Amino acid sequence: MSIEDKVRWDQQHGAARGSTEASGFLREIFAAEAWPIRRGRALDIASGKGRNALFLADRGFDVVAIDISPVGLEEGRRRAAEKNLAITWQQADLEQLQLSEAAYDLIVNFNYLQRSLIPQIKSALRIGGTVIFETYLIDQPAIGHPKNPAYLLEHNELLDCFRDFRVLYYREGQFSEAGERAFRAGIFAQKVA
């Protein structure tokens, strides 16, 4: 990412918009209590204001939240302090990020697509760890933002990216969350080898 990207995200996170509630897909996965989600160390990639990091910390995870925007991270830090939740907040350019191998039990990635980061996500999970990943599909420009195809998944692309994992749940299509429609793909998968 460039300085322009940082400025853009700072402006977006500085605006008083956006949900403070965790992603609907994340809440859906956790509501199905039969899933093998091991508590431990979690990473929230492109955390923004930390809505998903807060959700995970509230459920007993030791959370690291990474984003390029210090404005978003500061808002997340403030909200975590209000709830007395300990989260490690890290500002980083995700395009320059190097994740440690086998460092996390859970990695979440929402509304952000950097294809070059997917092998690192897979490597950064411990055996038995899980990934919850959801972002926009190539169909999204027909109804809203984002529109840049570089940041949109092809059909079945996310499923193909995690074929070497145990896929526990996958969905793709048009969904509504907080009154907004979007074309999205989401996966919940476990690293088995």
Give an overview of the whole structure:
With 193 residues, the protein is of the alpha/beta class. 27% of the residues lie in helices and 30% in strands. It is built from six helices and seven strands. It has helices at residues 3-14, 24-31, 51-58, 70-82, 118-124, 157-161, and strands spanning 41-45, 62-67, 87-91, 104-110, 125-136, 166-177, 180-190. β4, α5 (118-124) and β5 (125-136) form a beta-alpha-beta unit. The radius of gyration is 16 Å and the shape is globular.
Tell me the layout of helices and strands.
Elements (H helix, E strand, L loop, with lengths): L2 H12 L9 H8 L9 E5 L5 H8 L3 E6 L2 H13 L4 E5 L12 E7 L7 H7 E12 L20 H5 L4 E12 L2 E11 L3
Parallel strand pairs: 1-2, 1-4, 2-3, 4-5
Antiparallel strand pairs: 5-7, 6-7
Helix pairs in contact: 1-4
**Total count of strands:** 7
Q: Rough shape? A: globular
Residue windows where pLDDT falls under 50 for at least 5 positions: 6-10
SSE pattern: HHEHEHEEHEHEE
Q: Sketch the major β-sheet.
A: 7 strands, mixed
Strand order of the largest sheet: 3-2-1-4-5-7-6
- Please state the CA-atom Rg, rounded to the nearest Å: 16 Å
Give the helix/strand class.
alpha/beta
How much helix is in the residues? 25-40%
Instruction: Tell me the β content.
Output: 25-35%
Q: Mean pLDDT across all residues, rounded? A: 92
Number of helices: 6
What is the rounded distance between the termini?
32 Å
